[in-house]
Target: ABC transporter permease subunit
Amino acid sequence: MSSDRAVTGGPPGKLPRLPFHWLGIVPFAAFVLLFLIMPTMKIVVGAFQTPDGDFTLANIRGLFTPTIIAAYWISIKISFASAALGCLIGFGVATAVILGGLPRWIRGPLLTFSGVASNFAGVPLAFAFLATLGPVGLVTVFLRTELGIDLRVLGFNLLSFWGLTITYLFFQIPLMILIIAPALDGLKKEWREAASILGATNAQYWRLVAFPILLPSILGTLALLFANAFGAVATAIALTGSSLNIVPILLFAQIRGDVLNDPHLGYALAFGMIVVTGIANGIYIWLRGRSERWMK
Model:
């Protein structure tokens, strides 16, 4: 009886008190409610409302206009290209450091840099790439004056599809390294030894044992990187302005009123982005769960 009273916070007749350890989560819960759940609900509700507050599907139908469909398609292609390249390069770097012959002291600085670089985006990242690969950037001028290589003549433009894709790689590759590193650590030495005893070569071990085990993690990270790039707004706006017709820029124009001044169409655009990124994150969570079962 006394233990029951301790849990409920006192004798019968008094209101139960929450344990003090629940207080630690209150700031986080308030932050999520104010800056994630409530804005998301406002977007979802606004996507189905007229300026007068009445229910309508006109905003959703507006997403199927040729201009908006083209913007979504370009955004999907940029997101997939940066995610695929980020997975490929990041997996190679992580494998070389964790399972390759590189010195072990490289791992700590690499993971530290990856943790910082994976969150480096927005205006600072756009400025860094403009100062490096822009029309008068450091690398661009050096190649033109010292080596006679003109990137503009070769067709490279930072304010383009591949320019934005390369910019996104700056945070996509480190994110891949951070996520795939635990999966590489989870490959047990016994699996390689067993494959070697059975006469398998290194290539056969990777093709028949290691890669199938890592595949859910790789595909899950690909989905996560896709969602990460698809939802990147500040970097795209700061780098390309209105020169590239992608969803974040179109959304920014609708909300700010630079084009049609239709905030509810902007809500519908944001709702479409939520659906796309939600599907990608759902795929990541499902594949991540499969990968964790393998590692156990």
Observations:
- Residues 1-8 have pLDDT under 50 and may be disordered.
- The CA atoms of residues 71 and 247 lie 5 Å apart.
- DSSP finds 13 helices and no strands in the chain.
- The longest helix spans residues 66-98.
